[in-house]
Fold this sequence. Notes:
Layout: E1 3-9, E2 13-20, E3 26-29, H1 33-46, E4 49-56, H2 63-81, E5 90-97, E6 100-107, E7 113-117, E8 124-125, E9 128-129, H3 132-144, E10 147-154, H4 158-176
Parallel strand pairs: 3-4, 7-10
Antiparallel strand pairs: 1-2, 2-4, 5-6, 6-10, 8-9
Helix pairs in contact: 1-4, 2-3
Amino acid sequence: MRQATIQRTTKETDISLVLCLDGGEVNVSTGIGFFDHMLSALAFYAGFGMDLSALGDLHVDSHHTVEDVGIVLGQGVREALGDKKGIRRYGTAFVPMDEALCRTVLDCSNRPFLIFHAPMPQPVIGGYDSCLTMEFMRAFAMNGGITLHQRCEYGENAHHITEALFKSLGLALKEAVQVEGESIISTKGVL
């Protein structure tokens, strides 16, 4: 089983993660309802087992919690992938959500980078600041060693756009972490 257990405690957050890339139960509790929904959808569509709990300084705002969960989840994926031997490496997914269409393309390359083009028409989604989606994706990509490109092709509802981004990330990860052989997919021979 490709698994990782991560614990991260700072003055702003206390986060615990148990992640299995090969499936299992999904339990998420961050204190931010909409974010819990997005993380659960990401894990479901990726086919991951995930037990994640986060206590954060929500009396300040949600930023530290969302960003730090991105850090921890990225670290978890990176650790669970190990030497990346045999994985497909690349993943692509389009997800429609009502009027919105979003695309995620990624490479588990050990070369972290984020390109994010997804304007949010509304600033808040059920108490969740929609600008935090980009913060999560950046923290996830940088700490996961993932080249991540995301784009909202079109959309008018920030809830739909955000949900399509998280679901397409899950589907693209599911494709990229599939084991298809025994060698490292790189002309360099290492990732």
